[in-house]
Design goal:
This protein is of the alpha+beta class. 30% of the residues lie in helices and 20% in strands. The protein is built from 3 helices and 3 strands, in the order ββααβα.
Amino acid sequence: MIIYKAYCKATGKSFIGASTAKLSRIRHRAATDARRFGLHQNDTLLSDILRYGIQNTLFTLIETLPDSIHFGPRLDYWISYFNTLHPHGYNYPIEHRRPPPDSSELT
């Protein structure tokens, strides 16, 4: 499991996410999903990717977690660390989040 940051250069906002996929696959999926809303846990981020282009979104690996560690507390830590809760960023409170896709859903 990885925790990553997607940063939109145009808005200055970030999204912290978790996935079992590689960062390159996450970037590719974000570009693809931006054209098909409703497939990502954050349509606001996808809307900005459509508006400003995937080339204006930077994807950074923040942390790699062993399979034995639950990602939730680490995800919350990084969301707080980078202050990415709406309206400062693209993350929403936990009750509004969808679980991250596993890598089999990213093909």
